[in-house]
Amino acid sequence: MQELVLIQPIRAAENDWSREAAQAARRREFEARLAECGPLAFRVARCVLRNDPDAEDVAQEALLRAYRRFDRLRDTQRFRGWLVRIVFRLALDRARSAKRRELRETEWAQPARRAAPPNAEELAASSEFQAHFDRAMDELPEKLRLVLLLSAMEGHTLEEVAAMLGLPIGTVKSRLFAGRKKLAEKLQCYVTNTKKA
Amino acid sequence: MLCDKYKKGLTEAAASGAALSHALHEHVQACEHCAAMLAGERNLFAAVDAGLQKAANAKVRPSFVPNVKANLATETVPTGPRIPGWAFVCATGALALAVSFLGLIRGAHDKSRTEAITVPSKVPAGAVEGGSIFVPERKSHSSAKAFKAREEQKSFVTTTHEPEVLIQPEEEESLKRFYATVSSAAGEAKVVIADAHEVTPKPLVIEQIEVTDLRIENLDEGLTKTGTK
């Protein structure tokens, strides 16, 4: 019994030490991936939310969530795709809740919003196109949107997008094609109207 | 119209960015309208691509990654043995199976028990008068066969229902104990009632009657007769 009492704390200390060492190693590994994929996480969130502070917030939350579950990721080569999916999902949730909140606020503060209409200078051609583009992007199905954004992001090749999303390359190609076509269809009216004007 | 059959091909070519086929190329060379349409489509897709590039490659603040790193330092990850997700799924499945299996067994048991314990509402008066009998408060819908078997065994199974009991005073204490046991032991118990208490109604027996001084008088004639039985 005495022996046990003497030995136990040493074992506990050893366990603590090994646990801490493992945690430190894991943190180092994650930090290396963070340096590589952090901007990607931010950009994915930014594409969905179109707002820097919200995008940073969501990207950070996603990265912390990924860190907490980093042990569960068996194949670390898939980290990018895994992180992209977490960020995209979180950003979509945030965008939806923001939309609901905006809708509520619009209902309550309708007169105030009507009182301040945008002036002509604010509706510059490029920002107007961007607004149409953003709306068209919002209307796209999620699976098409993610492929479009990833393929436009950081010069990813189709193979890289396919690897990130765990999809066959043919699927990525067809989604990319369908997504661009849908976007063009939605923006066609705007382009036609602009030309007429 | 002739151009209509080329329209789809031109749009597809603009969308994919691929080179025009020979037929399309020849048509575009000859038809100004289709050439203008193709140019418009190519412009549109170029605008789409530019919009995508702009949206997808936003500038990241240099402080973003260091901020996340700083937050990682304060983040504590739970350590210790982690139970994998599949273990939870298996455990839940096993539990559900066990519950459903128990439910099946219990259901079958309840069915047989219902058959066994139902008691007719009409109890023979003689049986109640002399002995003791359990009459559980139940709706009577048992078959005659089940009732006969029950009568032979003289065994009854009590249920969680409040029983109505007619009993002799000296058996009251034991019945109380039995009922307490039944109530505490998950509502199931078996009791066998002794045959000793069955009493059949006895025929009326009249003791011998003795009549003394029987006198029959004729009131009219004044005659008297005396006799003894």
CATH secondary-structure class of the largest domain in chain A:
Mainly Alpha
Tell me the radius of gyration of chain A: 24 Å
CATH H-level superfamily of the largest domain in chain A = RNA polymerase sigma factor, region 2, helix turn helix motif
- Sheet with most strands of chain B: 2 strands, antiparallel
Radius of gyration from the alpha-carbon trace of chain B, in angstroms: 51 Å
Describe the structure.
- The complex is a heterodimer of chains A (197) and B (229).
- Chain A has 197 residues and is mainly alpha-helical.
- Chain A folds into two domains: 9-117, Rna Polymerase Sigma Factor, Chain: A (Orthogonal Bundle), CATH 1.10.1740; 119-197, Arc Repressor Mutant, subunit A.
- Chain A is built from eight helices and no strands.
- Chain A has helices at 2-49, 52-68, 79-108, 110-115, 125-139, 142-152, 158-165, 169-196.
- The longest helix of chain A has 48 residues, at 2-49.
- Chain A is elongated and about 80 Å long.
- Chain A starts with a helix and ends with a helix.
- Among the domains of chain B are: 4-56; 118-197, no CATH class.
- With 229 residues, chain B is mainly α.
- In chain B, strands 1-3 form a two-stranded antiparallel ribbon. A two-stranded antiparallel sheet of chain B has the order 2-4.
- The interface between A and B is large, with 44 and 32 residues.
Topology at a glance:
The complex is a heterodimer of chains A (197) and B (229).
Chain A: H1 2-49, H2 52-68, H3 79-108, H4 110-115, H5 125-139, H6 142-152, H7 158-165, H8 169-196
Helix pairs in contact in A: 1-2, 1-3, 2-3, 3-7, 5-8, 6-8, 7-8
Chain B: H1 4-16, H2 22-30, H3 32-56, H4 64-74, H5 85-117, H6 125-130, E1 133-136, H7 144-153, E2 155-158, E3 163-166, H8 172-184, E4 189-192, E5 214-217, E6 224-227
Antiparallel strand pairs in B: 1-3, 2-4, 5-6
